[in-house]
Amino acid sequence: MWGYFMWKYCPLILKIWYDLYMEEKFYTLTNDILFKFTFGDPKKTKILICLINALLQLENEQKIIEVEILNPFNDKEFIDDKLSIVDIKVKDQQGFLYNIEMQVQVPKNWDKRALYYASKLYTSQLKQGHVYKKLNKTISISILSNNCFKNNDDIHNVYRFHNNKTLKPLTGLMELHFIELAKFSKDKPRSLSSPFEKWLYTFKYGDLYQKESDMIPQELITEEGIEEALQAMRFANSDSQTRYLIEAREKFVHDQASFNDDAREEGLKQGKAEGKAEAIISFFLDGDLSIKKARKKIESLKPLLSPYFYTKIIQKLS
After folding, report:
1. How far apart are the first and last CA of the chain?
2. Residue 290 and residue 151 share a domain
3. Residue 139 contacts residue 99 (beta carbons within 8 Å)
4. What's the CA gap between 233 and 213, in Å, rounded?
5. Would you place residue 211 in the very low, low, confident or very high pLDDT band (cuts 50, 70, 90)?
6. Residues 301 and 192 reside in one and the same domain
C-alpha cells in the first residue's frame, strides 16, 4: 500500500516542491538588461517606436515612424563591464535624439545624472566644423521605479528650459521626462484607457504574464507592440546567455553594495579607534595617564588604526 502511494504520488509531490522552492527567478521588463534586450534590438525597432510614441503621448503627425538605434544591445558590453550604463540611444526620422533608461534601483542624484547624459547626447551631434543651427532636439526618458517627486502625484514629469517669469521657452531643443512606476496603480479607474497607461501596466505587472497561457487583458493585446514585448520578456528568461548576463550583473551589484557596507563599517570602527587614541594622548599630555599605560592602551587599538595614524600617535608618546 505504502509502495503504491509512493509510486503514484511521490513524483507529483516532488514537482510541487520544485515549483514552489526551486523555480528560477522571473525577470520582467523593469530589469535594465532585459529592457535593453527587448527594446534595443535593431531588428525589432517596431516595439521601441510603439513605446516612445506611448510614453511621450505622441499622436498623428507627431508620431515617430522610423528609428535608428545608436547603441544596440550587445552582450559583450555587459560581460566586459558589469556596471555599464544600460540605456538606449535612438535617432528618429527627423534626426531627433532620445536617451531612454529603465532604473529599478534609482541612483543618488538621478536628476543630475539624467541632465548629464542628455547633455552629452545633445553635444555629441556637434562635430568639428559643424554649426550650431544643425543641432537637433534631444529627449531624455527616465523610467523610475521609485517615487522621486514626492511633492506631486503626477506620474509623468517633464522639464524644459524656459523663462521663470514669462514661462516662454528659451529653446525646445532639450526635454527631460521622468516617469514614476510607483505612482501607477492598476486599480485606479480607467487605468488602461491610454497607450501610456497600458505600457506602464506592462512594465509594473509583467510578472503576471510569465507563460504563453497566461490571460492577457484585451486592452494590452490590442495595443501595438505590447504582446511582442511580453514575448521578448519570456524569451529572455528562457535564454541561458541572457539570464547569465542578468544574474552576473545582479550578483556584481549586490557584491559591490556588500563591499561598500563592509568598508563603511570598517571606516566607522577606525574612526572610533582614532578618537580613542587621540583621547588617550590628551590624558597623557595632561599628566592623567602614565606613558606605560598610554602605550599599552594604544597598542590594543593598533589593529583598528591605519599604519600612518598609529605611527603618528606613537610619536606623540616619545
Report:
1. 87
2. no
3. yes
4. 14
5. confident
6. no
Task: Give the mean pLDDT of the chain.
Answer: 82
What is the rounded CA–CA span in Å between residue 229 and residue 235?
A: 10
The single residue listed with the C-alpha cell 533608461 is 101
Cβ–Cβ < 8 Å for 38, 232: yes
E-strand ranges in 104-258 read 138-144, 156-159, 174-180
pLDDT in tens, 111-165: 898 999 999 999 998 876 677 888 999 999 999 988 888 888 899 999 999 999 9
Has residue 6 got a pLDDT over 90?
no
* Same-domain status, 140 and 209: yes
Grid look-up 504582446 returns 227
pLDDT digit string, tens, across residues 262-274? 556 666 667 777 7
Is 252 inside a domain boundary?
A: no
Give the type of residue at 140: S
Q: Which domain holds residue 305?
A: 259-315
Contact 218, 224 (CB under 8 A): no
202 and 289 share a domain?
A: no
**What is the arrangement of strands in the sheet containing 87-92, beginning at the earlier edge strand?**
67-69, 87-92, 97-103, 138-144, 174-180, 156-159
- Residue 25's φ and ψ, nearest 5 degrees, are -65, 140
CA torsion 105→111→115→117, rounded to 10°? -10
- For residue 60, is it within any domain? yes
Question: CA-CA distance, 143 to 55, in Å (whole number)?
Answer: 10
Which pLDDT score is estimated for 158?
95
Phi/psi at 138 (nearest 5 deg)? -125, 130
Detail the DSSP E strand segments found in 50-96: 67-69, 87-92
How far apart are the C-alpha atoms of 254 and 278, rounded to whole Å? 36
pLDDT at 28 over 70: yes
Is residue 1 a part of any domain in this protein?
Answer: no
Structural domain count of the chain: 2
